[in-house]
Amino acid sequence: MAIGIVVFPGSNCDRDVRWATEGCLGYPTRFLWHETRDLTGIEAIVLPGGFSYGDYLRCGAIARFAPVLQSIVDFVGEGRKVLGICNGFQVLTELGLLPGALIKNRDLHFICDNTLLKVSSRRTGWFSERQIGEEFSLPIAHGEGRYHCSDETLLQLQEDDSIALRYVSNPNGSVADIAGVTNKEGNVLGLMPHPERACDPITGGIDGRTILETLLT
C-alpha cells in the first residue's frame, strides 16, 4: 500500500513530501493528479503545501471542488488517514473535513522561519510517540496561516481534545495558539508547519519524521 500525494495546479511542496516519505522513510509513494477519482492502492493521503489553483479566490476554496477531493471525503469516511500541510490544511477546512479557517497572518506578512511547537493532544496516533507539552521545531512558510474559529468551535475542539499542536510563541495570531487540529475521529490532521522539511538531519533536522511515519502505522 502506498501514500498518495495530491497534486493541484500551483502545488509546490508535493515533491518535498515525496522526497521525505519515499527518500527518507522508504515508503511507497505516488502522486495523485487533482482530476483523478481513483484511490486504489492508497493507504494514506497527503495534501501538500503550495498555492492550489493559484489561491486566486481564497486559499483552498477552488481546490475543494477537485474530483480527487470528492473521493477523499469517502476515503476519510472509511477511517483512513489524511494529512493536510499548510495549503493542504486550508483545503481541508474549506472542504469541511476540519473545522475553522486559515486567514491572513496578524501582521499581514509572509512568514518563513523555524517555529517551536508543543504537543497539545495525544488522543490520536499522530502524536502518540510524544508527550503532552513536549516541544519540537518545524519550519513554517505562509501568509495566510492564522487559525480562526468561533468561540463555539473552539470550545468543541477543546472538548473533543482535537487541538493537536500549539505554537510556543505565536507567529501569526492564531486563536489559542493553534498550529494543528484533528477531526473528532482522529484520522485527519491539518497543520501549518511543514514536517516534510524536517526529515533529514543534514537539511533540516528530523523533528517532522514521527508525523509522516504515522501515515502508514
Descriptive overview:
The protein is α/β, with parallel strands linked by helices. The protein has five helices and eleven strands. It has helices at residues 14-24, 67-77, 87-95, 151-159, 209-213; strands spanning 2-7, 29-33, 42-47, 81-85, 101-103, 111-119, 135-142, 146-148, 163-167, 178-182, 188-191. Helix 1 links the parallel strand 1 and strand 2 (29-33). The chain is globular. The relative contact order is 0.18.
Following the backbone from N to C, one meets helices and strands in this order, namely EHEEHEHEEEEHEEEH
Structural class: alpha/beta
**Major beta sheet, specifics?**
9 strands, mixed
Overall strand count: 11
Strand order of the largest sheet: 2-1-3-4-11-10-9-6-7
Describe this protein with a few key phrases.
27% strand, alpha/beta, single chain, two-stranded antiparallel ribbon, Rossmann fold, 9-stranded mixed sheet
Quick overview of this protein structure:
By secondary structure, this protein is α/β, with parallel strands linked by helices. It has five helices and eleven strands.
Q: What's the structural blueprint in terms of helices and strands?
A:
Blueprint: E1 2-7, H1 14-24, E2 29-33, E3 42-47, H2 67-77, E4 81-85, H3 87-95, E5 101-103, E6 111-119, E7 135-142, E8 146-148, H4 151-159, E9 163-167, E10 178-182, E11 188-191, H5 209-213
Parallel strand pairs: 1-2, 1-3, 3-4, 4-11
Antiparallel strand pairs: 5-8, 6-7, 6-9, 9-10, 10-11
